[in-house]
Amino acid sequence: MSVCESILSLSPYQGGKPVSELQRELGLDRVVKLASNENPLGLGQKTLEIIQQAITQVNRYPDGNGFELKQALSQHLNVSQDSITLGNGSNDILELIARAYVCKSEDEVIFSEYAFVVYPLITQALGAQAVVTKSKDFGHDLEAMLLAITDNTKLIFVANPNNPTGTLLTDEALHAFLSRVPNSITVVLDQAYFEYLDCVDLAVNWLKEFDNLIITRTFSKAYGLAGLRVGYALSSSQIADYLNRIRQPFNVNHIAQVAAVAALGDQSHLVRSVIANKNGLKQLAEGFDKLGLSYIPSSANFIAVKVKDAPKLYQQLLALGFIVRPVEMKNYLRVSIGTSREISSFLDALKSAL
Question: Residue 230 contacts by C-beta under 8 Å, 6 or more apart in sequence?
Fold first, then answer.
């Protein structure tokens, strides 16, 4: 049997190491996972109660159109329901977008040197051409991305805040960038960490100005629903129509839809999560400062810290029961924000391992 050539050299996405896996490997009783940018507070009590009620209905197929979740998002963001596309996490949405707009082997997809690893994976899986622009201070160089545009450019991915660096582009810079991208090229503004920003939501308003803009967001981070896999895209109604033509009929399960509606309505838990994240960022940064380690200031829920020998230190931390994330920047480890106690014990372990 033959398989697409683009798949042969493709390495599958590697998520953060599961706690149970490390416990089996090393026989550890206590493991702290700071690898996958999850909400350390978990889900809110209101959402938990709604989930428990919804469990009795899992013998039924979910609403394939996600009416109630779209309605809740529409009211929350002041957008029309026909501009919303739901996905099995925002990863699902990113793949749908690429499948919709990348059609030929010569088609080009532009993304930054240090950006979400799914962008190159999607591009390679489709057999398209990846155009990787050099980073600027570990973030996106928007001018370089504009200069990289050719007649073959079909798609541009911009993550803001960026993963794995945590860097942030200003609204002014992004708007100016969008103004200069040809309308024939689709731009994806990946805002998986948007809720951690203390700012006005200007990007949603840009949808009225730029027909080629797609905004992707998720309930996996600040809302604490990573295990349920639910994300969404905001776009023109025409783009949403295209995406909905190729998505799986029931790509967001019933529990995920119900939980997302509940989480969206529990803004007090979101506020607590954002405050905890700000405190955690400060605690980690101060700890790195005391250890004499440099790091990239972050606007997300993680910090990329520079160490002498990242692969070795990663293994040492695993042996001590702490899971962090190796990233593509040489000798950097990405550390997710945990609870205050988890961060404190991590910093002690890090000090002993250095």
Answer: 69, 86, 87, 88, 89, 218, 219, 220, 252, 256, 257, 259, 260
